[in-house]
Write a structure and sequence with these properties.
Largest sheet: 8 strands, mixed
Number of strands: 10
Order of helices and strands: HHHEEHEHEHHHEHHEHEHHEHHEEH
Strand content: 5-15%
CATH topology: Spore Coat Polysaccharide Biosynthesis Protein SpsA, Chain A
Length: about 375
């Protein structure tokens, strides 16, 4: 579905940034205040029959050799996926510049050789020249979680999935997936809220307060995303037809880009989202203050750059993308690695790039 036809989902042949902003600000209070929310006490018992044959699970992983086997075992034995339904996207080199060896792929294949282990570099290589010339994305900018998910979309494109096929995203570093049951909860949420286009988990104590505050700034056309308890949660379900048409961010802003795309299609109505509560805190690698600053910078800068074009994300032209992706390096002050051990440090950091959708690349 091209940008123009996708905009017709918003109810008009063409929709301007200003119209989307008015939609966001003018929604009835019931429309702005609520997503489809399931309390943990209402989560029905999971049944393996909820796993559909066309379901796919994407696990972006870098240096997760210690945890990937546990994550895959959870998917195979606790959820009931077949190995062929799982894609492990390795988004790093086998040997990093610092000498570390990434054995994620080896450990994943030890669980089952039928699991699809794909390497980001192999998927991106055929598109390097096109990404640079048409969209202004230089090779050195091809890193980060969003780049891994974009690469996973390239892998999914080769599978000839139906638009209604469900794609589940799962982080590789969850230490207590068996107890949290993230994928089972997403499946129950998808079954209960079949009109929702994106299902996420609702956190226990990880509510992304800074992002909620930023989305509430005056005139933000994406305010309704703040109705989600845990908007930056990496555990999610989306339909392939929607995912194929999304323009993803290259780094930490990738989840935000997905939600921005969907909220544009839905006239600002957050009921396009659903969330399911968890009753056990999710345990994973906790982010440092340094990472939080980098993360919030990339997300806020991403939203600000899209807003500055006065054009919806899904309607940005190639010229828009080249301009945005060629922006100067930002000066970012971040806390030192050890708290209380000196002043903040200055980093020079690129903002997130914006990828074209898979639909644009392979119409």
């Amino acid at each position: 579905m091209g940008a123009r036809s996708r905009l017709r989902l918003l109810g008009a042949a063409e929709v301007t940034y200003g119209e989307i902003m008015q939609l966001s600000q003018g929604c009835e209070s019931s429309k702005v205040a609520h997503v489809r929310h399931m309390q943990h006490g209402d989560v029905r018992r999971f049944d393996r029959e909820m796993v559909l044959r066309d379901d796919k699970v994407v696990i972006p992983a870098k240096h997760e050799g210690r945890t990937i086997a546990r994550t895959l075992t959870y998917l195979l034995h606790d959820v009931g996926f077949a190995p062929e339904q799982i894609i492990v996207l390795v988004n790093g080199d086998t040997h990093d510049a610092d000498g570390r060896v990434d054995d994620t792929a080896v450990r994943a294949l030890e669980v089952s050789t039928a699991i699809a282990v794909r390497h980001q570099s192999d998927l991106l290589e055929p598109l390097m020249a096109r990404l640079a010339l048409t969209y202004g994305i230089a090779q050195e900018r091809l890193h980060g979680k969003g780049t891994a998910l974009f690469s996973a979309c390239l892998a999914l494109e080769s599978l000839d999935l139906m638009p209604e096929a469900r794609v589940f995203f799962l982080d590789a570093d969850i230490q207590n997936a068996v107890e949290v049951e993230p994928v089972q909860r997403l499946m129950v949420g998808a079954l209960n809220f079949q009109e929702a286009r994106l299902v996420k988990l609702a956190s226990l104590g990880r509510d992304n307060a800074g992002i909620h505050a930023f989305l509430a700034t005056l005139g933000c056309p994406y305010n309704a995303i703040g109705a989600l308890r845990w908007p930056l949660c990496g555990q999610a379900m989306v339909h392939w037809g929607d995912l194929r048409g999304m323009r993803l961010a290259g780094g930490y802003a990738v989840e935000m880009a997905m939600m921005m795309d969907l909220i544009e299609r839905a006239d600002g109505d957050p009921k396009i989202f659903a969330e399911v509560e968890i009753n056990v805190p999710l345990i994973d690698k906790r982010n440092t203050d340094q990472i939080h600053v980098r993360m919030y910078f990339e997300i806020m800068e991403f939203i600000s750059r899209v807003r500055a074009t006065r054009t919806p994300l899904c309607a940005l032209t190639d010229e828009h993308l080249r301009s945005i992706n060629g922006m100067d390096i930002a000066r970012l002050w971040v806390p030192v690695a050890q708290q209380g051990n000196g002043p903040n440090q200055l980093e020079h950091r690129y903002p997130d790039v914006i990828f074209p959708s898979v639909e644009e690349l392979f119409p």
